[in-house]
Please model this.
Amino acid sequence: MKHNLSNTPLWEKLVSLMGFLLICFTVIYLVWSAFTNTDQSPSIHFSVVNIEALEHQYLVLVDVKNSGDKTASDLHLEGRLISANGHIQRSTSQVSYLAPESKQRVGFYFTSDPAQGELSFIPMGYQEP
Model:
């Protein structure tokens, strides 16, 4: 039995064209990402979002962003608050999973007012998933 292309409904032609284009764009994206991926280690950046005064302590909310190409799993973070008299307070937090180009909000607790000292944050270590 012969199938005539002119008997194929227009909607069926459009759906098949959209499927073909989707497959082409997917293949092009996969090839492009394979050649442009620099395979950088996780690059962790911090930005303070808010500082809240609680009853007996202060909560510092921080956005943690991974600008690298690899995922960081079990990421350990440390916040340091150096007061005017040189006393150092440390607070730790942990992020279970931080994908490339993603961010997550974490909280650090301190007993002294962060506005009266100097805050700094560092990544302590991670695992590759």
Summary: The CA atoms of residues 11 and 17 lie 10 Å apart. The longest strand covers residues 72-83. The mean pLDDT is 90. The domain at 44-127 is CATH 2.60.40.1620 (Immunoglobulin-like).
